[in-house]
Design brief:
The protein has 336 residues and is α+β, with helices and mostly antiparallel strands. It contains 4 helices and 13 strands.
Amino acid sequence: MNKNKRVIVLPVLLGGALTGLLAWRLWIQDAALRAPAGGSGVVEGTEVSLATRLTTRVASLAVREGQEVRAGDLLVEMDCRDTQAMLAEAEARIEAARAQVEAARAAAGAASDAARAALKAAEAARAQAEAAERQASRVAAVSEDVSAAQVDQAQAAAAGYANQAAAARLSGRATRRKGDAAEAQAEAAAKSLAAAEAALTRARLLAEECEVKAPIDGIVELLPYEPGELVLPGSEVARVVDISTVRAIFYLPNADLAAARPGGAATVRADAWPDEAFHGRVATVATTAEFTPRNIQTRTDRDRLVYRVEVEVDNPDGRLRPGMPVEVSLDGGGEG
């Protein structure tokens, strides 16, 4: 009889347990449906990766990883003896190019003055030749009153003045050509100066790469090189992260998308601070759906189409750190 009772009671207990489990699951699902929209996310800061354009070695590190820095603080100093030599060479070339420009311009000015003087002399000789020709004509007209020698003398003077005028014109043209050549040399010297100035600008830009400074206030997250190590162009030599304002990144299912509006309020809770709620605001909501990233834990969640949502949270005390897992709930509202 007792055995029969046990046979009957066992199925009853099992059925009750299953019923209770089912009721508990339904209650959990109902609570989830009634809960604010949100999801699990990860904290991110504003990272700035600093690289160099030089091929050189690290001379020294001015900070250590994890140290707080201000914008403009020196992080890494590079060995820039070659770069400083290039800068000095560029500065010397600038001075030489400026001297060449001044000399060429002076030569061009002198040639131009000489050309003008030659042209004036040619004009004066031409005027004298014309006057001598007129005098020779007058003498020839009154040849009965003058001797043949006087006529020949007047004509010879006119011819001499004409030859002087022709010579002066030729000299003026030659001097003008010299002036044109001097102007061309001055223009070439000016272009050489411009090239030297460009080389100096480039050398100064490279010299600025010798000191890697923090572009923002933040924390030094990475210093991958030690003093003496060779660095190639484009290599990351430091990374600074700003966590004064952080972003909580999570993915929202399509059914809850209406709750995510830019400017809407959100609450962020971190496992490291279970008794505290961090208040933020929705910064961006993706316009295109995507499959949930593979770092989401369950296969069911990974197969859903979701929208990326970023929530900004003021973090003046730095308690929220990059990579920290958080739970985000949306409070609704925001821009229409």
